[in-house]
Specification:
By secondary structure, this protein is an alpha/beta fold. Among the domains are: 251 residues, 3-Layer(aba) Sandwich (Rossmann fold); 239 residues, no CATH class; 229 residues, Rossmann fold (3-Layer(aba) Sandwich); 118 residues, Lambda Exonuclease, Chain A (Alpha-Beta Complex). Helix content is 50%, strand content 13%. It is built from 50 helices and 30 strands. The strands form eight sheets. It has a seven-stranded parallel beta sheet, with helices on both faces. A seven-stranded parallel beta sheet has the order 18-19-17-20-23-16-24. The termini are far apart.
Length: 1222
């Protein structure tokens, strides 16, 4: 019998800024049993957890290291520990006693030992402390865990290598087994993928090696028919009767064979009901998998063997054959021809039986082969990792189990590690419990004592990580088997000012408490969510319990201040059915962009808005369309890195240095990093040599003298350096950082470069060898997926997948990308579920002309996988809708029907699931407070929207494909006359410099013959020579930065009389504080660049120029003034076709200096560092930059009005002259 206690709410809790609700307080103060808190979205579960733990430390005198608190992420762990420490500190300071001061001191000392962490980090701590208890048998030898193990964050490379090694061994040692795998899975990649997919699933199962041996194939028939096949080996038309007689006993056994009973693992009641229903509906029709069909076929064969009498048949089958007298008459009446014909028919039946036994035998062999394959891959995988002292995240869990339990005499027993933790932990807290898997549950059972308790918190409706092995049934089992707190004290009778004590004699394992009040969202967001899920989650449709208590409730404490919240209807955004399907995502993004612009006009920040998509597939489309409307956005993309300049340039650099025969990589290095012209590459291709590097070493071409020196230096440097150091050296020496910085306006190439450095830093720490880092980069390039860390621009719309948004909240949520069909893995050749183990599609074992059918377990597994997938998609939708704080927009390409119809509901996409709910909109339950009063309306498109869409319509995007460049270079080595592929492609967002570069290339390509084009392109390409673009960029950036500093200093009253001293005083020092305070802006490199007599003279000329006179006489001064304007493609690009001339381009620019002399007169001054001569310099500068100044002038007119006067100037740094542009 358990004694339960609930303490009265104390004054400290009541006095909090946000006092706990009655249900929250029950969860905080209940003791005496295991507790499950079913915490709805936004219900304050983190507050409940941190408050309960801090009270245990202060009120019950526990220590911070005596509780285990498991969170789902590192960020959540950090936040939880900070909250606990803050609450604990506040409570102890309020007590203000000698004991409390000592307690606070002790707890702060124990903070380093606090186990507020993820399950991975906890297991790592177990292994660091008890490594000596871990034994593994790998490759037939006992291995002990090294205390100096390292964490392997990405195991793909090791697993791929293990599978490759296994297949190579099979080729040498067991070609028959390999042949069978190829026969079934058709090619090597399919074999690799299947092995990896099933093996990865095994790693979420406790004691998975034993599971593979004993349980994985539990529901697969492994009957061996090899003996009967031996007897049928020489079957022919001449001997089939004799063989039929010979195998009759075996055939009779098969005919009376019963299928073994299905083995189920941990089936919930709802799952069992579902499988039994499916099982009852399975019909094999006339396939041989139907045992009755098989039996009848065998009976026919045996009955037509004329050596048998009816008495013989009676002995064989144990009963009279139907109407045997008729059979005898039939036999006697047969003509010789009829007998021969029937003999052929019976022979064909035997052939079919033989084929059936052959494919069943192949199944038997496959089971043995595949079991060994999984175990061998596991052995090789573990061996490779341990040889490099690595543990991956699943190793941490599996080895922690080895440290926490041992097997003696076939029984599992606690180790000293398990006993240590059971004695230490007084309570175990699990956050996001709905995302736990079987492996984590098993580990927790090894560290919990009978005297300690579980406190689990989660929302099973938000369980969306099934693809990672999470098991919502763990939560559901507790919810179904625990008692509800209201069984002891009803909500109506509960008084927060009273203490309660109960005796629990129910025999149940724990108590569950429901937190259903959502403190995050406005009321209509909650009602919209309830309306949808009252219809989608009922009757276990989402695989979890759902009733009125599962809905989201608006807190009474907020209702008192409800007038502060605006009632905002949920809006449906959709397209007309006539719109082109291929452009659906873009058109929908247009509508969303217009609505976001409308919100922004009302004072809503872009960063208050989020677009949530089911997958990342269409993120780029949405980002591009938002950009077209001048809306900044940010998303965590997974494919940008491998398409970036930075990744490809640096990967090819390292790939070549690792192996000098890799011609394609050397080619990329020569063209990109070293900027060798196409013409020179063509000349190099003529040089004798086995491969490109040999040609380079032996050539005496003048263009390659410096190139050879650099490459030889890099090769020598790489011999004793890590990949990380090599990249840093090359990037610095070749000014590549400046090159990446100048590639785009969003600095994405700089971000990608930083990502490459992060990867190389990690790989270089793991293994000094260059080849290791190259292999890692090659794996990333092959996968084409890497979640890059990108800087989020300030005040930008967030674009995210629903999965990545979990745990976050946004004021305005646009739920989109809902129309894509679900992809179910229910038709793969091998299927696995934890409930039914492994199943395979039997059709993969026989020829297509024989329809023997799929086995029962495959069909059950297939149906179960599909059901679980749909359930998780519904829960995914729940997560999406509950991210919204103020308003919710549901966006689909097809209009929702808000009235019921006879059209059947489908479950193929999130849009179809929502349609299923919205058809019931007219049948709103007005008696149900969770949804009564909900407002869901269709967003009407206004005339202004149509005009705005026309203005921003159908731009073309410029996407650079690095492979195109590589292929292009290769073509130049073969053909002297390069034929450029004509394509109209303009960036939808550009700068003047990018625009100018495009036009220069366009004019060059369209106005010259091939030979002239090569010469001109060579000249144009020499921007990366020794005194090339990187140095020019650095000088330009330095002068712009310096002139801005001078203007600001003089305009604030500072006098600059000594240029040398001024430059010295703005050079950065080691103290960041001093740099900020004294506005020191020049780096050491920048200072060196201009610290010479010539540069100082030119800078002094600027200080004494007319520019400074204008600055001194200005009413207002703006420096580095950014602007954005919309232009037609024909206005800024050369050679634009008539069809594309009206395409809209967003043009960004920065005005170096804008002076407001009086109310009507403005002066634009643009600094230029072009190297020009005094003779023709002024003329060249005017021609070169007039278009740019005209664009700047247009921007000023648009901003300040047409009734002003704008004067425009260039200040030439080289000529030391202010030049007016007319």
């Amino acid at each position: 019998m358990k004694k339960l206690k609930i303490m009265a709410m104390d004054e400290q809790a009541k006095a909090a800024k946000y006092p706990p609700s009655s249900k929250q307080w029950q969860a905080i103060s209940l003791t005496g049993t295991d507790i499950l808190v079913a915490a709805a979205a936004g219900s304050g579960k983190t507050e409940v957890l941190s408050e309960r733990i801090s009270r245990k430390i202060v009120n019950d005198d526990w220590n911070i290291n005596e509780v285990l608190v498991l969170t789902f992420t590192k960020a959540a762990s950090k936040e939880m520990l900070e909250r606990i420490e803050k609450k604990m500190t506040t409570k102890l300071i309020d007590i203000n006693s000698e004991w409390s001061q000592m307690k606070l001191k002790n707890q702060r000392l124990l903070m380093a030992e606090a186990q507020v962490t993820t399950i991975d980090a906890f297991c790592a701590n177990v292994l660091k402390k008890f490594y000596y208890l871990v034994e593994e048998v790998i490759d037939g030898k006992v291995r002990y865990l090294s205390p100096n193990f390292r964490i392997l964050e990405d195991r793909r490379k090791y697993l791929n290598r293990a599978v490759e090694e296994l297949l190579s061994e099979l080729y040498i040692k067991d070609k028959k087994s390999l042949d069978l795998l190829f026969e079934i899975f058709l090619n090597k990649q399919n074999i690799v993928d299947v092995i990896k997919a099933i093996y990865e699933k095994m790693l979420t199962i406790p004691n998975y090696q034993t599971y593979i041996k004993e349980k994985l194939f539990s529901n697969i028939s492994t009957k061996n028919y090899s003996n009967i096949l031996k007897d049928m080996k020489d079957l022919s038309i001449n001997n089939y009767k004799e063989i039929a007689i010979k195998i009759s006993d075996e055939l009779n056994k098969i005919a009376n064979f019963r299928e073994k009973k299905r083995v189920d693992f941990n089936l919930s009641e709802s799952r069992r009901d579902f499988l039994e229903k499916v099982d009852s509906e399975i019909i094999f029709d006339d396939t041989l998998e139907n045992k009755e069909v098989l039996k009848n076929l065998i009976t026919d064969i045996l009955a037509e063997n004329y050596s048998y009498t009816s008495e013989d048949l009676l002995v064989i089958f144990g009963k009279e054959l139907e109407d045997t007298s008729k059979s005898r008459k039939k036999i006697k009446a047969k003509t010789e021809m009829e007998v021969l014909l029937e003999e052929n028919i019976e022979y064909s039946k035997l052939i079919m039986i033989k084929e059936y036994f052959e494919f069943k035998t192949r199944q038997y062999k496959f089971v043995e082969i595949f079991k060994n394959v999984l175990l061998d891959v596991d052995n090789k995988f573990l061996l490779a990792k341990r040889n490099d002292s690595f543990l991956d995240f699943t190793d941490l869990s599996h080895l922690a189990i080895k440290a926490l339990e041992k097997v003696e005499d076939g029984k599992r027993k606690d180790t000293e590690a398990s006993l240590y933790y059971k004695k230490l932990f007084k309570e175990i807290y699990v956050d996001e419990y709905q995302d736990n898997n079987d492996l984590q549950e098993y580990i927790l059972g090894l560290v919990k004592s009978d005297s300690s308790s579980y406190f689990r918190v989660g929302d099973v409706k938000q369980s969306i990580y099934g693809f990672r092995g999470s098991n919502p049934n763990l939560f559901e089992e507790k919810y179904q088997s625990y008692s509800n707190i209201v069984d002891f004290i009803s909500d109506e009778k509960y008084d927060i000012d009273k203490d309660y004590e109960f005796e629990d004699s129910s025999g149940k394992d724990g108590i569950y408490i429901i937190l259903k009040e959502n403190y995050r969202s406005y009321e209509n967001v909650l009602k919209t969510s309830n309306f949808v899920f009252n219809r989608l989650m009922g009757y276990g449709a989402a695989g979890v319990s759902y009733d009125k208590d599962s809905a989201l409730y608006y807190p009474e404490s907020k209702r008192k201040n409800q007038d502060k919240e605006e009632f905002i209807a949920s809006k449906l955004i959709s397209l007309e059915s006539t719109e082109v399907k291929a452009l659906a995502a873009e058109n929908l993004a247009e509508k969303i962009s217009l609505e976001i612009k409308r919100l922004q006009e009302k004072g809503i920040r872009y960063s208050d808005c989020a677009l949530l998509l089911r997958t990342s597939k269409e993120m780029k489309i949405y980002s591009d369309v938002l950009s077209k409307y001048g809306i900044p956005s940010y998303y965590r993309e997974k494919e940008g890195l491998t398409n970036s300049y930075a990744f490809n340039m640096l990967f090819n650099l390292l790939n070549f240095l690792d192996n000098k025969t890799r011609e394609a990589s050397l080619l990329v290095i020569l063209k990109t990093i070293l900027n060798v012209s196409y013409a020179d590459l063509y000349e190099l291709s003529k040089v004798e040599g086995r491969h490109l590097y040999d040609k380079l070493k032996t050539t005496d071409l003048k263009a390659f003298i410096e190139v050879k020196e650099k490459i030889e230096y890099w090769i020598k440097f790489a011999e004793d350096a890590t990949a990380y150091d090599v990249v840093k050296e090359v990037v610095q020496s070749e000014y590549l950082y400046e090159y990446f910085a100048g590639r785009d306006l969003e600095n994405s190439e700089m971000d990608y470069y930083e990502n490459v450095l992060t990867i190389l830093k990690k790989t270089s720490q793991e293994d000094f060898n260059l080849a290791y880092s190259v292999a890692e980069l090659r794996e990333i390039a092959k996968e084409k997926i890497y979640e890059s860390a990108r800087r989020s621009p300030e005040n930008s719309v967030i674009i995210s997948t629903i999965h990545n948004s979990k745990g976050l909240e946004y004021d305005y949520v646009f739920l989109t990308g809902l129309d894509g069909d679900f992809r179910f893995d229910d038709r793969d050749k091998l299927l696995f579920t934890t409930e039914l183990a492994l199943a395979y599609d039997e059709s993969m074992f026989y020829r297509q002309e024989y329809a023997f059918g799929r086995n029962r377990n495959y069909i059950l597994n297939s149906k179960l996988i599909r059901k679980k997938s749909i359930e998780e998609e519904i829960r995914n939708l729940y997560v999406a809708l509950t991210r919204a704080k103020k308003a919710l927009y549901i966006c689909t390409t097809k209009k929702f029907e808000l009235v019921d119809s006879d059209e059947p509901n489908s479950e193929k996409s999130l849009a179809s699931l929502l349609q299923k709910a919205f058809r019931k909109y007219e049948k709103l339950d007005v008696e149900d407070i969770t949804e009564s009063g909900v407002s869901i309306v269709e967003l009407e498109e206004s005339q202004e929207d149509e005009i705005a869409k026309e203005k921003g319509d159908k731009v073309k995007s410029d996407k650079y494909d690095f492979k195109i460049e590589e292929n292009f270079v290769e073509k130049q080595l073969q053909y002297l006359g390069p034929k450029y592929i004509e394509k109209e492609s303009y960036p939808i967002k550009t700068s003047y410099s990018h625009m100018k570069r495009y036009n220069e290339i366009h004019i060059m390509e369209n106005n010259q013959d091939d030979e002239d084009r090569i010469q001109e392109f060579e000249k144009y390409s020499k921007v990366k020579s020794k005194k090339g673009v990187a140095e020019a960029i650095l000088l330009g950036n330095t002068i712009h930065k310096l002139f801005e500093r001078i203007v600001k200093s003089i305009s604030s009253g500072e006098k600059i009389e000594d240029t040398d001293a001024f430059l010295s005083n703005i050079k950065r020092v080691n103290s960041n504080l001093q740099n900020i305070k004294e506005k020191r802006i020049l780096t050491e490199e920048e200072y060196r660049l201009i610290n010479n007599d010539k540069s100082i003279d030119l800078i002094t000329s600027f200080i004494n120029s007319e520019v400074i006179d204008l600055v001194k006489n200005s009413k207002k001064i703006d420096t580095e003034l950014a602007f954005t304007s919309m232009k037609k493609a024909s206005e800024i690009y050369s050679g634009v076709s008539k069809e594309a001339s009206n395409d809209k381009i967003i043009l960004q620019g920065v005005i170096d200096l804008l002076l407001n002399l009086d109310d009507k007169t403005f002066v634009i001054i643009d600094y230029k560092t072009d190297r020009v001569t005094k003779k023709d310099g002024e003329k060249i500068l005017k021609e070169r930059h007039k278009a740019q100044l005209d664009i700047y002038t247009d921007a000023v007119y648009k901003y300040y009005g047409e009734d002003i006067v704008v004067k425009k100037y260039i200040y030439s740094y080289v000529l030391a002259r202010l030049i007016e542009i007319q």
